[in-house]
Amino acid sequence: MKTISIMNHKGGTGKTTSSINIGAGLAKKGLKVLLLDIDSQANLTEGLGKGDPELSVYDSIRENKKLPILNISENLDLVPSSIDLLGAEMEIVSKIGREQILHKLLKPIRSEYDYIIIDCPPSVGLLTVNAMVASDTILLPLQGEYFAYKGVDRLLGIVKEVRDNLNDKLEIGGVFITQINPNRILTKTIVEKLTEDLQEKVFDTKIRINVALAEAQLQGQTIFDYAPESNGAKDYEMLVEEILNRLT
Fold first, then answer.
1. CA 171 centroid distance within chain
2. Rounded-to-integer distance, Cα 182 and Cα 184, Å
3. Can you list the pairs that 91-98 forms with residues at least 24 positions away whose Cβ atoms lie under 8 Å?
4. 174 φ, ψ to 5°?
5. How far apart are CA 66 and CA 140, in angstroms?
6. Three-state SS for 57?
7. What one-character DSSP code corresponds to residue 105?
8. DSSP category for residue 36
9. Sign of CA dihedral 240, 243, 247, 248
10. Alpha-helical regions (H) of 114-230
11. Helix, strand or coil for residue 150?
12. Bridge partners, residue 172, by sequence
């Protein structure tokens, strides 16, 4: 099995949308998938129609309780988040082994899944470090915008620090570009620049701007359930294929 963190220190990169639909795409292929929301905004949780859960990952982190797992659909489960997670970093900062908390919580259930997908906060704090320590692979979504790669070198440096000091198995699985508008003349230049800078780390699949992706989350559904014939569904299906090819 593989544990994948989808992370970017910037907001608005399509991180949560990608976490939902990569997880759903893998489940659609018959693979058993757990989505884990560790962002206090709980957008992934709400985007799957499970807002205001009775228990969330916060309860497990704070009290060392078993992770609360909700079934979403066939082969797809969720560990929800809540706004309570806002205070988690301050509460665990003084704990011994604070970077290992999520790793230990996942250990008893890893064998039950083919993939665990962690949706990280848009910051590089203690919760994100926990996700990296618990993961095998990092995937980075980047917007198809001019300054999308600004700060990526620093982010890759942090991943290296975690690999060197806390998780020597951690690797960068790749970078995929989101919110592409193929009708913009500037888009081709941006993609070429990103590919030049990051080379083979950039996935071939690009996620186009597609209103159905936002609508699906408002309805608490994956893109495959909400609009299976949309460009969003087609793009994420291709991305899932590429992830399977690259990471196996």
1. 15
2. 6
3. 91/61, 91/62, 92/61, 92/62, 92/126, 93/126, 98/126, 98/130
4. 150, 175
5. 28
6. helix
7. H
8. E
9. positive
10. 126-134, 152-165, 185-198, 211-218, 223-226
11. coil
12. 138
Is 68 in contact with 59 (CB distance < 8 Å)?
yes
**Measured distance CA(235)–CA(248) in Å, rounded:** 20
Contacts of 23 by beta carbon, 8 Å cutoff, 6+ apart: 33, 34, 35, 76, 115, 117
Mean pLDDT estimate for the chain: 91
Q: Compute how many other C-beta atoms are within 10 angstroms of the C-beta atom of residue 90.
A: 9
Q: How many CA within 13 A on the CB side of residue 154?
A: 8
Q: What percent of the chain has pLDDT over 70?
A: 99
∠ CA 95-97-98 to the nearest 5 degrees? Answer: 55
Q: Please check whether residue 131 is in contact with residue 5, taking contact to mean a CB–CB distance below 8 angstroms.
A: yes
Work out the average pLDDT over 160-170.
95
Give the tokens for residue 155: 């982010």
Biggest CA–CA distance in the chain, Å, is: 52
Q: Name the token pair of 81.
A: 């988040």
Token output for 157: 């440096």
For residue 130, what are its two tokens? 């926990």
Provide mean pLDDT across the span 18-24. 97
**At which residue do the structure tokens 């604070």 appear?**
98
Give the sheet arrangement for strand 33-37, strand by strand: 70-73, 76-79, 33-37, 115-119, 2-6, 137-143, 171-180, 202-208
- Amino acid identity of residue 99, one-letter, is E
Pairing state between β 2-6 and 202-208? unpaired
Separation between Cα atoms, residue 56 and residue 66, nearest integer Å: 10
* Residue 183 scores a pLDDT above 80: no
What's the rounded Cα separation, in Å, for the pair 67 and 178? 31
